[in-house]
Amino acid sequence: MTSAYQEISESIQQQRVRLGVVPAIAVTRPGLPEARAWGGRLAQAVSEVLAGDRPVAQLVRFTDEDVFVELNRRVRLLGLTTTANGRGTHERCALRSVRVCRPSSGVAEIAAHVRHGGRSRAIALRMEVRRNRWVCTALEVG
How high is the pLDDT of residue 101? Predict the structure, then answer.
């Protein structure tokens, strides 16, 4: 029984090497939020900004300069404004799923599925640890 287990274990290790599978890397920084939860909240916030439910200025602390400038440009192009009267009268964005890839320590790549009304939106973002907090350094919205 032990030899069969060893053979299976060796086979799995060989497949990992051949496929280039990288084991997950845990962040050991104290006080740093879990990447999946933080990435999910950020993806939902981005979706709310693009739906006009949240002001883009709320994301300035959580994005680097390039990401914020591009997000702000999109909001201006769409002509989105947020008003207290308009919010809450229609369906809110709902986070459906979040997937996390950890290519290296201090980096998390997030793929999220957000539902808004009858439409779905895919959001991919890269988060890096800067000054002991997550900052979005790349953003793609589908």
Answer: 95
Distance, in Å, from the CA atom of 127 to the CA atom of 109, rounded to the nearest integer, reads 6
Q: Give 86-89 contacts, CB < 8 A, sequence gap 24+.
A: 86/52, 87/53
Residue 139, pLDDT > 50, answer yes
Question: Parallel, antiparallel, or unpaired for β 119-130 and 107-116?
Answer: antiparallel
Which run of H or E residues covers position 36? Answer: helix 35-51
H-helix or E-strand spanning residue 60: none
Is the pLDDT assigned to residue 126 strictly greater than 80? yes
Query: What average pLDDT is seen over the chain?
Result: 82
Angle at 24 between CA 137 and CA 108, to 5 degrees: 10
**Residue 84, H or E segment:** none
> Within 13 Å, how many C-alpha atoms sit on residue 26's CB side?
2
Predicted TM-score (pTM) of the model is: 0.73
